[in-house]
Design a protein that fits this description.
By secondary structure, the chain is mainly alpha-helical. The protein has a domain at 27-108: Cytochrome c-like domain (Cytochrome Bc1 Complex, Chain D, domain 2, Orthogonal Bundle). The chain contains five helices and two strands. The protein has helices at 2-25, 51-58, 65-68, 74-88, 95-108; strands at 27-30, 36-39. A two-stranded antiparallel sheet has the order 1-2. α4 packs across α5 (95-108). The longest helix has 24 residues, at 2-25. The protein starts with a helix and ends in an 11-residue tail after the last helix. It binds heme C. Heme C binds at residues 57-58, 60-62, 66-67, 70, 80-81, 84, 88-90, 101.
Length: 119
Amino acid sequence: MENRDVHLLLAMVLTATVGSGVAYAQTIVTDDQGNSEVIYDVGSLYPAVGAQLTYDYCTACHSEMIIAQQGQTREGWDEILVWMVEEMGMSEIEEEYRDQILDYLATHYGPDRPHFPDN
Ligand code: HEC
């Protein structure tokens, strides 16, 4: 009986921790056009609209640092995405999402490297 109570208590503590963890980690970002996105984990990517989508698509095979260290124009990023599909085995990304990812990358990881990692 005593043992069972301990387990119950443990289950309650775990539920509370997970519950508040999720609520705390989510942020909603919005851009000038009024687009918004829920951000829950983008690693070291800059948290702006498109970051979660990019993180989810692009970190299946490698770290997001490989992205953060690049500075490319939209055309440059477009070529990288073609290369990911043709040579690296990435699945084609649906047009709508592909555009959003390119917008995000060109804005935040452009040639002037506004969010280049410090380390
Ligand atoms: C199917 C696996 C896969 C996916 C998904 C993927 N990549 Fe890659 N990517 C690779 C591999 C493999 C390499 C080269 C090996 C390495 O450096 O780890 C690479 C390398 C890179 C590089 C480094 C290029 C260089 O010159 O060093 C960039 C930038 C990049 N990927 C961007 C992206 C972006 C942006 C996405 C999401 C749209 C993405 N990758 C999704 C497999 C993938």
